[in-house]
Design brief:
With 398 residues, the chain is of the alpha/beta class. It has 16 helices and 14 strands. The strands form three sheets. Strands 1-6-5-4-7-8 form a six-stranded mixed β-sheet, sandwiched between helices. A five-stranded parallel β-sheet has the order 11-10-9-12-13, with helices on both faces. Strand 12, helix 13 and strand 13 form a beta-alpha-beta unit. Helix 1 runs antiparallel to helix 2 and helix 3 crosses helix 6. 43% of the residues are buried.
Length: 398
């Protein structure tokens, strides 16, 4: 169905977007500067300060990721230059509707701006009453978004990928979303780039006999409250810990606003795994390749060195997952569903591309000519061989 929606938007453009916005909700309209100005003016000062602080920290950390061009000479006269170029226009999908995620605006827009992207577009669905979160719009302004559209779901992804009469196409789409958004991102991959096919948020806590059950419980709850399909996994070497953590969960759940969602997530997707020893626990964590991994063991720094598959790792008592979600400057757009074994967090490099430039002098080509012609002959590619030989033959005729 998501792929069909994408195809329809590609064919009928704005007309399809308008129909899907009415049918599924989320709207379809550009957000004006005046609307953003009004939102910023109406947001509490403390919230504005928090957004500005998050933007500053994310910008500072991601500025360390800006790629640097480099030259390397393989043999005298043969130089390869690795050159990076930012994209000209990217789209950031920010979940919305009944909820608001200004932090996702920060985590997607700021790295794109740090990369030097020419235009950064935010796409987010409006609420059922036709409004957008003032906090989210304020984050768009502070983070530096160039364009904001009220539209969502698969149709919003398709609009950014294919372009319509009103929406210019982008070169890449980043940001989390529901199953429809994820399916649409996969459907348009190839038309434009995407970051990852994000699944439900997930957490794994590594613990032992020294772990505090209350902290383990709250770290499991921290990501499980994203949705009823969010996995929360405890892996411990202490057989007595799961029962003590469960007792803390029972105490904490009634105090939380999203207790119903949390109870369903824990019932359907909550695990407690007892490992024979720490090495076994770490091996399980690496096989699981969780989005968020919290280390609550006796020597967390040493354990962290052995965790090789995780989106974001939180080390020790003073590192709650919420710190990374909002304020440390690390990115919270992370691989899920085991993809952390091969993929990492959203970064500046996701908003550009590398190319390799090859600079050869006459002496440089002469030095590698035998290698070229011998391998080309072995592969039966005589035009490849001639492309090198002819240069020296032409030289003899000058």
């Amino acid at each position: 169905m998501a792929a069909e929606i994408c195809d329809d938007v590609a064919t009928r453009g704005d007309t399809a977007l308008r129909e899907y916005g009415e049918r599924f909700g989320g709207g379809f309209r550009p957000v004006t500067d005046a609307e953003i100005d009004a939102a910023v003016a109406g947001v509490d000062g403390a919230l504005l300060d928090a957004i500005e602080s998050a933007v500053a920290n994310v910008r500072a950390y991601h500025s360390t990721q800006v790629p640097v061009d480099a030259d390397f000479e393989t043999v005298p006269g043969v130089t390869i230059r690795r050159r990076w170029t930012p994209m000209t226009r990217v789209g950031c999908y920010v979940p919305g509707g009944k909820a608001a995620y200004p932090s996702t605006v920060v985590m997607t827009v700021v790295p794109a701006k740090v990369a030097g992207t020419g235009e950064v577009v935010v796409c987010t669905p409006e609420s059922p009453d036709g409004t957008l979160s003032p906090a989210m719009l304020a984050a768009c302004r502070i983070a530096g978004a160039d364009e904001v559209w009220a539209m969502g779901g698969a149709q919003g992804i398709a609009a950014m990928a294919y372009g319509t009469e009103s929406v210019a196409p982008v070169e890449a789409i980043v940001g989390p979303g529901n199953a429809w958004v994820t399916a649409a991102k996969l459907a348009v991959y190839g038309v434009c780039s995407i970051d990852l096919p994000a699944g439900p948020s997930e957490v794994l806590v590594l613990a032992d006999h020294t772990s505090e059950p209350r902290l383990v419980a709250v770290d499991l709850l921290c990501q499980a409250e994203h949705g009823p399909d969010s996995p929360a996994v405890l892996v411990t070497t202490d057989p007595s810990l799961p029962a003590r953590v469960e007792a803390e969960l029972d105490r904490l759940l009634p105090t939380l606003d999203r207790s119903g969602i949390l109870e369903q997530a824990l019932e359907d997707h909550g695990w407690a795994v007892v490992a024979e020893d720490l090495a076994d626990a770490i091996a399980f964590a690496n096989d699981y390749a969780g989005e968020h991994v919290s280390i609550a063991t006796e020597h967390p720094e040493e354990v962290a060195k052995q965790v090789t598959a995780a989106g974001s790792v939180y080390i020790g008592r003073w590192a709650p997952e919420s710190a990374g979600d909002y304020a440390t400057g690390a990115n919270h757009v992370l691989p899920t569903g085991g993809l952390a074994a091969a993929c990492g967090p959203l970064s500046v490099e996701d908003f550009g591309s590398w190319r390799q430039e090859q600079h050869l002098t006459r002496d440089g080509l002469a030095a590698i000519a035998d290698t070229i012609t011998t391998l080309a002959t072995a592969e039966g590619l005589t035009a490849h061989r001639l492309a090198t030989q002819i240069r020296f033959e032409d030289e003899e005729q000058l």
